[in-house]
Predict the 3D structure of the following.
Amino acid sequence: MNATRHPSDDKLGAYRAKRTPGATPEPVGAVGRSEGRAFVVHLHAARQLHFDLRLEMGGVLESWAVPKGPSLDTSEKRLAVKVEDHPLEYGEFEGVIPAGNYGAGAVILWDRGVWVPLEDVAEGFAKGKLLFELRGYKLRGRWTLVKIKKSEKDWLLIKERDGEAREDDVPLPDRSVLSGLTVEEVRDGIDRGAAIRNTLPPEATRGAVDPTGVSLQLAEVREQPFSDPAWVYEIKLDGFRMIGGVHDGEATLRTRNGHDATAAFPEVVRALRALPFRHLVLDGEIVVHDDAGLPSFQRLQQRARLSRAADVRVQAAERPATFYVFDLLGFEDVDLRPAPLLERKRVLQSVLPPVGPLKFADHVPEQGEAFYAEVERLGLEGIVAKRAAAPYT
């Protein structure tokens, strides 16, 4: 499908005319050369709280402002006002636009993923109807944008009834898929680390953990599953073991052998970098899912073989990796490794966003045999048993 429009003109002129560089943290940006299909949804607390739906096409983000109202994935029509094109870099923007600037208010990255045009895009704009599929962390399935006649900017955004439409009144999480912050927390500059520091387990010791010097806790093979109230059980994921490090806004990924994998998974590194904490050391597994949502080691290997930065960026959007985090070794200037496993996991769950590229690897207590039977039925690789009260050794 052709997703290119007006390839020669300056599509960001209107965007730049409304913004003063240096007065706002928003990116100045330039028209990109990529023909990617990323989409993002921002939640924007301007004069009125609203969503901004942005579809990458022709080197920019075509953008529509949509009233907040009910959850976006409910099958109902809602007004979508076409606004100025935004630069591709805006797809990573999250922060506060200062008072006195256009669009002043807090902005979070509410969702992101890939959009798939289901009809020719140029023809769709010409006739005022775009049919597309979203494959995001929150939004899935088919949508239609229909231009309202006799209007230059007004469209209707319609969620199709395709099995992905939400029929209940339970909204999707209003937290960023990157930082895990709400728009109110971004607006008020809330220090989420302060609340967590007051709940750290007493066994933790002072001293920041160096992610490059961690000796990994490794598993041993058992032929049969077992059940024990002193143990918990996690899914054994078919992926790459990784140590994720965050320090002062920078992030790294290292394999179990200590090799630097930071450049290979930019979508995961972007999410690590966005976490609102000064220092973290995370232990987990990088996974790429297949079309059925199951871990695909073949797809993961294909990702790992890529060397060109442009190819990595495309695949990061088309086949994104997920970092399933099952342990927290360091939090800011505290070493959590001496603390019991369940205490480390309790703190970990409060650190990670509820939805996004970083996912809390949950566990099942005591019932190892029943859990193994269910994992086997689903065709997964196996389970990992861990002592609930054990330190990280």
